[in-house]
């Protein structure tokens, strides 16, 4: 009997290892993330990371990407900050933003538009948009970047997609995701912009 249970546990262990491996390989790995200080950063650059928030794993599954959070660089008093959405919309020192991400790694992208100046004051203090809605004057991370580029810089980085078009977020297979959507008032028909959509924009190029 002990031998039987030992075999069973061994088989379960192998199965779990296979599931973990398949899940990791199922995610689309973007260009290698950086983990060194940025020496060339400009206002308007977009910075991405794998967030360590509770919703980050759901975003990874839904978008098939490790990229789950982003913000836009602004310069204040000659120092770089990240305009980002946390519980409210804030300016975060660049080094603090980087340190908060998984393994301290990040991706940095830039447009070809020169001498960018972001009018960010009216965004500060706005609450995080839990409903992921457009046109309600509150924002989630990638919507913020999308909005600034479209309305201030005249560049539509990507086309919004219906929530139902994302790989998992549009299904009814995961109760946790469905419950989260229902609690936040998110529908499968509404449009959204994911961090990876911004990352893959043809109007941004990688900065090393």
Mean pLDDT: 82
Biggest sheet: strands side by side, in what order?
4-3-2-1-5-8
If you consult CATH, what is the topology? endopeptidase fold (from Nostoc punctiforme)
Radius of gyration, CA atoms, in whole angstroms: 19 Å
Beta content: 15-25%
- Overall tally of domains: 1
Principal-axis shape equals globular
Give the helix tally.
6
Class from helix and strand fractions = alpha+beta
Class in CATH? Alpha Beta
Descriptive overview:
The structure is a single chain. The longest helix is centred in the N-terminal third of the chain and has 25 residues, at 2-26. By secondary structure, the chain is of the alpha+beta class. The strands form 2 sheets. Strands 4-3-2-1-5-8 form a 6-stranded antiparallel β-sheet, sandwiched between helices. A two-stranded antiparallel sheet has the order 6-7. The relative contact order is 0.17. It has helices at 2-26, 56-63, 94-100, 141-151, 175-184, 195-199; strands spanning 46-49, 69-76, 79-85, 89-93, 107-110, 161-162, 191-192, 205-206. The chain is built from 6 helices and 8 strands, in the order H-E-H-E-E-E-H-E-H-E-H-E-H-E. A hairpin with a 2-residue loop joins strand 2 (69-76) and strand 3 (79-85). Mean pLDDT is 82; it is low at 4-28. The chain has one domain (34-206): endopeptidase domain like (from Nostoc punctiforme) (endopeptidase fold (from Nostoc punctiforme)). 32% of the residues lie in helices and 16% in strands.
